[in-house]
Write a structure and sequence with these properties.
By secondary structure, the chain is α/β, with parallel strands linked by helices. The longest helix is centred in the middle third of the chain and has 14 residues.
Length: 245
């Protein structure tokens, strides 16, 4: 499958701390899970792809667009749900999405349809007149996905979208993401191998800023002679490989 996003030799450091160490990867259409422990560099990778952070070295390309040279078109092609997503509590769901559409440069004449599409895609249609501060955690996370979708991007970056949700909310959001993955390139960061088994076509494992595995989920389980239900064990093995016991 052709890749929409490519990263080669990407490094990123915060003052004195290197968070990404020469990442090479490409993302095709479908859901790719970015799995890694705390501090592995997942949010930094999302930040670099979304242009919130600028890598010190390396190259990124999205359907031939460069994040610096073609900044505006590149950003218009990306929808981003940050880990700490919040929205003003006094707005309604619909008002917030209309504002997001304006902010994301959706032409005025198209904004109403774009908001309706984002609401429908995330199952929020019935909550469009609810105030943001009346939403449950799961609904708020769906709103985060909806605002990422409002300009109809080709690539969706979802930073830990399932964290803190109860099992029912998590399953409902997983269904939304699976559906979006049929047409979009979705990169979803998570700590949970359960998310990988339920959602992902591909899985990239990151540890201490380095990519330790990049394959389809079935390639990974075949290679490790495991089944999808053993992903926890496989993950632990991948993280342990190359480290002193
Ligand atoms: N603004 C910052 N300044 C300095 N160091 C940072 C900053 N942001 C992240 N780091 C460090 O960079 C490394 C990677 O952090 P990052 O947040 O990308 O990891 P993560 O995999 O998303 O972790 P988590 O799962 O806990 O969100 C960590 O060691 C973190 O402490």
């Amino acid at each position: 499958m052709t890749s929409t996003v490519r990263m080669s030799a990407v490094w990123h450091s915060y003052r004195g701390h290197t968070a990404l160490r020469g990442i090479d990867m490409s993302l095709p259409v479908g859901v790719t899970a970015l799995l890694g422990p705390n501090g592995a560099g997942k949010s930094t990778l999302m930040g670099v792809l979304s242009t919130v952070l600028r890598p010190q070295h390396g190259r990124i390309e999205l359907n031939g667009l460069d994040p610096v040279r073609d900044r505006r078109r590149y950003r218009e092609s990306i929808g981003f749900l940050p880990q700490n997503f919040t929205a003003p509590g006094r707005l309604t769901v619909s008002e917030f999405l209309t504002l997001s559409g304006w902010w994301r440069r959706v032409p005025r004449a198209e904004r109403r349809d774009a908001v309706r599409w984002a609401l429908d895609s995330t199952g929020l249609g019935e909550r469009r007149t609810s105030k943001v501060d009346k939403l449950s955690g799961g609904m708020l996370r769906r709103l985060g996905v909806a605002q990422a979708l409002v300009n109809e991007p080709t690539v969706l970056l979802l930073d830990e979208p399932t964290v803190g949700l109860d099992p029912r909310q998590r399953n409902a959001l997983r269904e939304v993401i699976t559906e979006l993955g049929r047409q979009h390139t979705v990169l979803l960061s998570t700590h949970l191998t359960e998310d990988v088994a339920a959602l992902a076509d591909r899985v990239i494992v990151l540890d201490e800023g380095q990519l330790v595995s990049d394959s389809t989920v079935s390639e990974l389980t075949d290679r490790e002679k495991a089944t999808a239900s053993d992903l926890d064990e496989v993950y632990e093995r991948l993280l342990g490989a190359g480290k002193p016991a």
